[in-house]
TrEMBL record, chain A:
This is Substrate-binding protein. One of its GO terms (biological process) is amino acid transport. The keyword Protease does not apply. InterPro entries: BCAA_transport, Leu-bd, Peripla_BP_I, TAT_signal. Belongs to the leucine-binding protein family. It comes from Tianweitania sediminis.
Automatic annotation (TrEMBL), chain B:
The keyword Membrane applies. It is found in: Cell membrane. GO terms for cellular component: plasma membrane. This is Branched-chain amino acid ABC transporter permease. It comes from Tianweitania sediminis. It is a multi-pass membrane protein. Keywords: Amino-acid transport, Cell membrane, Membrane, Transmembrane, Transmembrane helix, Transport. Coiled coil: none annotated. GO terms for biological process: amino acid transport.
Length: 452, 343
């Protein structure tokens, strides 16, 4: 009898197949996970992880920078499990545990960007290359944001933008490594134009004074387009240098231009100065074209409202967030911030705090600091509880889509913080737009550039 | 169009007032002591912060907590009571309202002391040094002064309200017999222009019609000869440095409602004021005043959108362009004297 030669048994096939799958699939993943540790910029190896805070502590937007710094310090305390936890308690969904990020305590280094793009870029470079920052965040100007975002893309470090409102930040200058929580000028136009038409009518002639850099240009364009679509005419749009301080020579031509609305595309101290000086020129007591002359400030914050004092009363604008919103997230953040610093947080502080938490949460969900994985965790992430209702970090342009506020200077403040009212909340669907309209290209996340 | 041009002319006078006042002080120091004082802008800033300090003193408050009312973060609401108004009632309110012009009274002695201490303490050691070294040391001083102000008052501008009676706009068109509301201009800017004229006139009259001024002018022309006559010209020049500081300080005080003071304002004005002095002619008081107003007016006209449409950014460079043209045509400036700053 010849012995029958048996083929491979079913068990053998299964065993071999399984080993093959492990060898070709899972094992390389495990190795590559270890490989990430060596292959990205400032991979934290000790017990700490460092945020790089790029803050305009001097210059035209210094007040916002100071408030952002407070917010980041508070966020870092909360991430490390100190204080009352703030928004960690209300963020949904959340992977944050209050023990730092991936078990590492969060610390920070900071740099004064002076509200200047070149200084901001130099500061970010220093924090990445010298101080080992894993992520850069902050800024109150779109010029800074775009400059730093571009740098971060080159160095493979994630940038969580602070206050930046230019359409370009997540439009033509968007980057894979850059993320913006703050709303933009286009959304300001969508939100404020119908309110202006209702309050002041559709037969108006507007004169724009515009800060001469990316944010001013895109805001001017957005507000012009939105108001002209409602029937307003734009008489003139004049560019003014950032940090001009004295705007008198730009304001005098407004008086005899035939305009009956002055639109100030200025922010921070520039807006405080230009609005104050416009009021000194009697513009709020003036009649033009048979109508009351009006001033509009499309983007303003409570810090600017405090600076402008009486002059801001009754003036319309838009905001990303306001501390007296009634939702749980806004209440929790106002409570934490107020208890720590004795004043309510500004919209700059809010966006800074939220960005720090969202980055930390993305790392936890990704299970790594490896930037491409963190980027994947942020792209398309939908969350709630941070004060703006349900919010989506849109994957196509890294712009947070959420509700937008139309605000108005408070006519009858009851205390020093009660300087503006939320006039109308524009929901996320209304504030939505096609990301393709601004063009731009996010670029690739991988291969990850090496910063040093 | 006439209205627009007239308003820009007024703006130019207003800007020119500040430039002329700072340039006047710079020229006084250069003409008497021969020192190129790059810290002069810082004296303008010190004056502005005299107004800030004076108002902060006037608005000191007592703070009590109201346990009945809680803030959104759960802390008792603060009740603030201004001390001056509590002590002096309506008079206190008037003092607070007029804090900017009243702070001139504080600024005069403070700036005189700062000027004299600066001259005796540092500047006098550099009289015989080259101008480059004078510039270096005074520029360093300007940076130090700016940082001191930043450390004490913080980096942000601090708005100073003008008296309520002077907050509105004057209907200049109606004064000139035109339609109402055609030419309106802020009252405080008119006040500033008149104030500048008063200060400039006073300084020139002081130099022209007093014995002290006559000696100083003689010293400016020929220091050695005046000294040989037994006159202590150094002491008089020290006092002139103090007076220059007072002029810059007063200019800074009255400018605060137009431009919230910040630690950078000295540098902002200094560069333009130096251009003014150079265009006017080094050491020439009338030249500095004329150039101050001329450049203020040109800068104002250059900001018109009709001009900017053809020359974008012209408002930012106009004074430097004018300086280049003036120095090419008149190398000593508009009213410069032969031999001053010339090898």
């Amino acid at each position: 009898m010849s012995e029958l030669k048996r083929g491979p048994s079913r068990r053998h096939v299964l065993r071999t197949g399984l080993a093959g799958i492990i060898a070709s699939g899972v094992a390389p993943l495990a190795f590559s996970r270890g490989a990430w540790a060596q292959e990205f910029c400032n991979n934290p190896t000790g017990g700490t992880v460092t945020f790089g805070l790029n803050l305009p502590l001097t210059g035209a937007y210094a007040e916002e920078g100071a408030d952002e710094q407070k917010a980041y310090e508070l966020a870092i305390q909360h991430l490390n499990g100190e204080g009352d936890g703030g928004l960690l308690n209300v963020l949904k969904p959340s992977a944050l545990k209050g023990n730092g990020i991936l078990g590492k305590k969060v610390q920070y280094v900071s740099s004064d960007s002076q509200t200047k793009s070149d200084v901001a870029r130099a500061g970010a470079t220093r924090m990445i290359e010298r101080d080992g920052a894993i992520m850069i965040t902050g800024g109150s100007s779109s010029g800074e944001a775009i400059a730093v975002q571009s740098l971060c893309q080159e160095l493979g470090v994630i940038f969580m933008a602070g206050l930046t409102h230019s359409n370009d930040t997540t439009g033509k200058d968007k980057r894979r490594y850059g993320f913006r929580h703050f709303f933009n000028a286009y959304q300001s136009g969508i939100a404020i134009a119908p309110v202006l038409a209702e309050a002041y009518g559709k037969d108006r002639r507007a004169y724009h004074l515009t800060a001469d850099y990316t944010w001013g240009w895109t805001q001017e364009e957005s507000i012009k387009n939105a108001t002209e679509a409602l029937g307003w005419e734009t008489v003139q749009a004049v560019r003014t240098p950032l940090g001009a301080a004295d705007f008198s020579q730009y304001l005098t031509p407004v008086l005899n231009s035939g305009a009956d609305v002055l639109i100030l595309n200025h922010y921070g101290n520039d807006m405080v100065n230009s609005l104050t000086q416009a009021v000194q020129f009697g513009m709020r007591d003036r009649q033009a074209n048979g109508k009351q002359f009006e001033i509009v400030v499309p983007l303003f914050s409570e810090l600017m409202a405090k600076g402008a004092g009486e002059n801001i009363k009754g003036i319309f604008g838009t905001s990303n967030w306001h501390w007296n919103l009634p939702d749980e997230g806004s209440k929790a953040f106002t409570k934490s911030f107020g208890a720590a610093y004795g004043s309510p947080p500004s919209q700059a502080a809010h966006t800074a705090y939220v960005q720090a938490l969202l980055y930390a949460d993305a790392c936890e969900r990704a299970g790594t600091f490896y930037p491409p994985e963190v980027i994947k965790a942020l792209e398309g992430f939908e969350f709630d509880g941070m004060g703006n209702g349900k919010t989506l970090y849109r994957a196509e342009d890294h712009q947070c889509m959420k509700s937008v506020l139309v605000v108005r200077g408070n006519e009858n403040p009851t205390n020093q913080f009660d300087v503006l009212n939320v006039f109308k909340e524009i929901d996320r669907e209304t504030a939505n737009y096609d990301p393709a309209i601004f063009g731009g290209d996010l670029g690739a996340a991988e291969p990850v550039p090496q910063c040093r | 169009m006439f209205e627009v041009l007239f308003l820009q002319f007024l703006n130019g006078l207003d800007k020119g007032s500040a430039y002329a006042l700072i340039a006047l002080g710079l020229t006084l120091v250069f003409g008497t002591l021969g020192v190129v004082n790059f810290a002069h802008g810082a004296l303008f800033m010190f004056g502005a912060f005299c107004a800030v300090l004076f108002r902060q003193l006037l608005t000191l408050e007592t703070v009590t907590l109201d346990p009945e009312k809680l803030s959104p973060w759960g802390a008792p609401v603060e009740i603030r009571q201004p001390l001056v108004q509590a002590w002096f009632g309506d008079v206190g309110a008037v003092l607070v309202n007029y804090s900017v012009p009243l702070s001139l009274l504080l600024s005069i002695p403070v700036m005189l002391i700062i000027g004299i201490v600066m001259e005796r303490g540092i500047i006098k050691h550099f009289y015989k040094r080259p101008h480059a070294e004078q510039i270096l040391v005074t520029f360093g001083l300007a940076i130090v002064f700016g940082e001191i102000i930043k450390a004490v008052f913080g980096p942000n501008p601090i708005p100073q309200p003008m008296p309520t009676e002077l907050r509105g706009a004057a209907d200049i068109g109606a004064w000139l017999g035109m339609q109402p509301n055609v030419i309106t201009y802020p009252l405080w800017r008119l006040v500033y222009f008149l104030f500048a004229l008063g200060v400039i006139g006073s300084v020139l009259a002081f130099l022209q019609f007093t014995t002290f001024g006559m000696v100083v002018r003689a010293g400016m022309a020929d220091r050695e000869t005046v000294g040989a006559l037994g006159i202590n010209i150094d002491r008089r020049f020290t006092i002139m440095f103090g007076i220059a500081a007072v002029v810059a300080g007063m200019a800074g005080v009255m400018y605060t409602p137009l431009l919230p003071p910040s630690y950078t304002m000295g540098m902002d004005f200094l560069v333009i004021s130096f251009v003014v002095v150079v265009v006017g002619g080094m050491g020439s008081l009338p030249g500095a005043i004329a150039a101050g107003f001329l450049l203020g007016i040109l800068q104002s006209f250059a900001s018109m959108h009709q001009l900017k449409a053809f020359f974008p950014g012209i408002d930012q460079v106009i004074i430097y362009l004018v300086a280049v043209v003036v120095l090419l045509v008149l190398p000593r400036g508009l009213m410069g004297r032969r031999g001053v700053m010339e090898a």
